[in-house]
Amino acid sequence: MDPPTVELHQNPSNFVTVHFTFRTTAKIQQAGQSMRQFTLQFTATGNTVVVPQIQNNQVVLTLNANQTSITELQVTSSAGGGLPPVILNLLQGPQFFAILNAFVRALTPLVASPPLLSTQFSHTEHADFKDSGVSLFDWFTIYVSASRVVARPLEKAITVALDFAGLTQGDFNQLVDLISIRGNGIVYYRTVYQTTSLSSPPILQRVSEPVGSQIAFVLNMDVVSQIIATQVSPRIAGTKIKKIEVAGVDKMVVLNWISLGYSQFDKPLRGREDGLRLHFNVTALGFDGNGDAYIQPYLQTWDGPTNFLQPDSWRMYVALVDVDLGFWADFVLGLFEFVFHVLSFIGLFLSMWNTSFLEFASHFVQSVQNGIDQADAGNIGAGAQGQLQGSANSATLPSPWSSPLPNTTFPRWDGMMHYMSFTAESIDAGIKTWINWDDAKEQPAAVISPEAWSASDRHPIQIALKLRNDLAKMAGNNLMLSWQVTRNDTGAIVANPILRYDAGPANGPVLYHHSEELYTVNAFTVSCVATITLGSQVGEIWSGQQVLTIADILDRSHGFVEWGPHWVVFVAPDSTPDKPNYWQHIRNSRIHRTAVAARCKMLKVKAEANAVVIATRANKRNFAPLRYRDDLGFPWEDLLRHRKALCEYCFFGGPDKLAPRPQEDWYEPMPDVYGVGLGFGVKPHA
């Protein structure tokens, strides 16, 4: 089965059209005729339902196979010739329709989108007002949870909506296509040139909210205001944020209430602009005072030579701080610490779709603590704004991301925020997302491992199959693997078990290659067929084969090896630095064993050196090739009499050993290397 494709069209039943392609091999026999084999392709079209599903507290879209109905079916033969009409009619008839519908409905839900947004959010804000001596671990807590999640297919788009418990009760029929209908917000941006001073307040330009994002997000502004009014403002009322000494008596500046929402404001030399307005009310010395801070998101882009450019990033700007202080202005400098504690809560909402203001808020708080006392009391609003802008300029919204869909490892989806704006109705944002082009190349449907094995690794070979994630998920728990392993030298079958795919990494046969039967085999052909069963029907979803090579630097088909003659040069006893003298003579090596468990270190070094020379050196002068032999020229029982001609390590295990090693080349000095109960395959020689 190929990955399904989906068509999105607006319709009264809110169905989506889904296309499935199945391939299988069938043997068909008609009465009085011989058996014929066909390779069949089934192209099915049906209706299904897109269901929002919660995974790790985030909403993703899935295709609900349980509610899928096949409406059209075409059967073609790609191998074996044309199908007889009676067979074609049978395969496209109602009985086979029922079988195919049952198969599709048995599939697991298929993930169809990246993570879209969170269904719950909880955040507790701490506060520490040093001027008043007040420290609160739980100053206020915001908690929102989704009471309903719905999805509506539209023309080439899907709209997903959440109702928040106790806050909203939306109308499903009012859902619109957010990616094609332009919002009424304003998007601000700043272009950085080589002459731009990054420490100066940004001069923002403006454009209308664009269209064309792959994902569009809208958060109702009334919901934001309600949360502040019901969950934040009552909790922080009465907070003592600053201590004032009057005539030797301590008085407190007390926070009364706050609100948050959209507002337009007048920016000097710029006219009216819009942003998010945080309003607060405090009492000091019996008088009330009010203040407002206006915040704007903006995109910072770069223009100039290549070595000057930096990635685009979204940032926050404190556009205006307006404080109605009256005659007690010099007593309420500390209230700005409160203002920017509260700002951190904004991150709660935007973090629901992978965007967070918390870094921005922490910059604000630190900036206030470090610089607000330097502001002039008579011009505290402008002074605070100036102190905060530098921090806001360095505070960024999340960078572009790259990650796969939930429960998958491939491909990665890249993305970044396309636009963001505050309007009287909502907080609007758009996200662009696309498949990472490094991952765009087609991946194999399945991989048989390993592809190669070193002959010097005497452990059994554990063969396994890893299906592509979509195929594995589609098959569910009844996926079976039929294996066959054959020798490439003789074609004999070595192993042919049938195992469950979910048996873990060890879902294939075990080859005891270091055994009498398989010791000299240099390659195996590993074949596998993956099938699933539905009722009495068995269907193939993948088949393939791979050659497993046993890599070796020596020829194991010969039991012994030597090299030479070759010149050996060494320093003579009478040699001096002033009169060097060298002796040389022709030498033959001792006889070594090619048996994997017996090879000495010198033989391994020589074999590796020869392999390098053969591969890289055209001039092979003074090169002593290996000479293989199948016998020693004397019986194995006479080893001790001919010990001087033999490698002490290959034949005896060292010059201090008296008993020779076993004669069989496949001998194993450590039988436990095979373990116990590792699976199917040829057992080691007893």
Can you tell me about this structure?
This protein is α+β, with helices and mostly antiparallel strands and 686 residues long. Helix content is 15%, strand content 42%. It has 10 helices and 35 strands. The strands form 9 sheets. Strands 10, 11, 13, 14, 15, 16 and 17 form a 7-stranded mixed β-sheet that branches. The relative contact order is 0.08. The model is unreliable at 326-396 and 672-686 (pLDDT under 50).
Number of DSSP strand runs = 35
Q: Assess the beta-strand content as a share of residues.
A: 35-45%
Total count of helical runs of at least 4 residues: 10
Structural class: alpha+beta
C-alpha termini separation: 45 Å
Low-pLDDT sequence parts: 326-396, 672-686
Quick rundown:
The protein is α+β, with helices and mostly antiparallel strands. The chain has ten helices and 35 strands.
Describe the structure using short key phrases.
15% helix, 686 residues, alpha+beta, six-stranded antiparallel sheet
Task: Itemize the secondary structure elements and their pairings.
Blueprint: E1 5-7, E2 16-28, E3 36-55, E4 58-79, H1 85-91, H2 94-105, E5 110-111, E6 117-118, E7 120-129, E8 134-154, E9 157-164, E10 186-192, E11 205-208, E12 215-220, H3 221-236, E13 240-246, E14 249-267, E15 271-284, E16 287-302, E17 313-324, H4 335-343, H5 346-350, H6 358-371, H7 380-394, E18 401-404, E19 412-422, E20 426-435, E21 446-449, E22 452-454, E23 461-462, E24 464-467, H8 469-475, E25 479-487, E26 493-495, E27 498-500, E28 510-511, E29 523-534, E30 537-551, E31 560-563, E32 566-571, E33 582-587, E34 592-593, H9 601-616, E35 626-629, H10 648-652
Parallel strand pairs: 10-16, 22-30
Antiparallel strand pairs: 1-2, 2-3, 3-4, 4-5, 4-6, 7-8, 8-9, 10-11, 12-20, 13-14, 14-15, 15-16, 16-17, 18-19, 19-20, 21-24, 23-28, 25-26, 25-27, 25-29, 29-30, 31-34, 31-35, 32-33
Helix pairs in contact: 4-6, 6-7
